[in-house]
Write a structure and sequence with these properties.
Length: 296
């Protein structure tokens, strides 16, 4: 039914949730958690990285904007189908009428899922902001106590504030992991290199795309008619909060490889209902560009 309005439906996996209960009564025991390797050691009390509130805010705003775009598109589809539903009822075309009725119910269910998904993302971010403010407050108090004359009471207060900062930091890391569950997938398609005179028939290139631990390595060749053939055309990447796409292009000449360029690409603009055409300058002067298409 989503094809009626000509846009890609939001993947069902976006609406899945992962639950895990932890022993201490913290924010972690009241929300969905993602259990990747990056967070395993947190369960043992060891921190891997500091939370990055500014980056999380940017991703949250982009994610919410993209989800709202999907919601508006599905609402428009529902309005369109409802209009046809009324016209069909007047014309008494029963078979088509019931088919439309089925489509309308499907879109309505999808809209409810989207609304729940948006509310879940907002809930997670609200909890994240609370822990961030608590951590900032505890950090400021810890700094104030450290400047005061040392005493047993001040040392005990400093120790308690240190524990509070650690707990808030851990909670923020866990919320970041829980939020990543709701980021969906990026389907990245290879559209080829653009280089004008720099690309000649017979030239062979290797493109290496990395997002965190996820990697995509593909090889291509410039044909005699200036077309390009690549051994792979599409790769699915799971977005995360902290990593940018890193793209490396090398030219293959026999047994030798010549580095053409390395660039990074932020994923903020990829949270959209429409496929995003990406053209990045591989060389500093832009003599060779790489064309990709990203569908969220």
């Amino acid at each position: 039914s989503s094809q009626v309005m000509g846009f890609a439906p939001l993947p069902e996996f976006l609406f899945s949730s992962h639950s895990k209960s932890l022993s201490r009564s913290s924010v972690r025991s009241r929300m969905s958690l993602k259990p990747p390797k990056a967070y395993n050691s947190l369960q043992k009390g060891a921190l891997i990285w500091d939370p990055k509130p500014l980056q999380v805010k940017k991703i949250f705003e982009a994610l919410k904007k993209g989800l709202n775009e999907y919601l508006e598109a599905h609402q428009a589809e529902l309005d369109y189908l409802s209009g046809r539903h009324k016209d069909t009822k007047r014309n008494s075309r029963l078979a088509f009428y019931y088919d439309l009725d089925k489509q309308i119910r499907s879109v309505e269910r999808y809209i409810r899922k989207l609304e729940f998904h948006i509310s879940k993302v907002e809930e997670l971010y609200e909890a994240y902001c609370i822990q961030c403010r608590l951590r900032d407050g505890a950090t400021n108090m810890k700094q104030a106590f450290s400047l005061s004359p040392s005493s047993k009471a001040s040392r005990e207060s400093l120790l308690e504030l240190y524990r509070n900062v650690q707990e808030c930091t851990e909670d923020m890391c866990f919320i970041e992991g829980a939020l990543e569950v709701h980021l969906g997938e990026f389907h990245v398609k290879m559209k080829g290199l653009v280089g004008f005179a720099r690309l000649c028939p017979g030239d062979q290139y290797e493109v290496f795309v990395r997002l965190g631990r996820q990697k995509w390595r593909l090889k291509g060749k410039i044909e005699t008619d200036d077309s390009q053939t690549w051994d792979e055309e599409e790769k699915i990447f799971i977005p995360n909060l902290h990593e940018k796409f890193e793209i490396k292009v090398t030219e293959l000449r026999g047994l030798a490889t010549i580095l053409v360029g390395v660039v990074t690409c932020d994923s903020i603009n990829f949270f959209s209902t429409k496929p995003q055409a990406i053209v990045v300058d591989i060389t500093e002067l832009g003599t060779i560009k790489l064309r990709l298409e990203v569908l969220w």
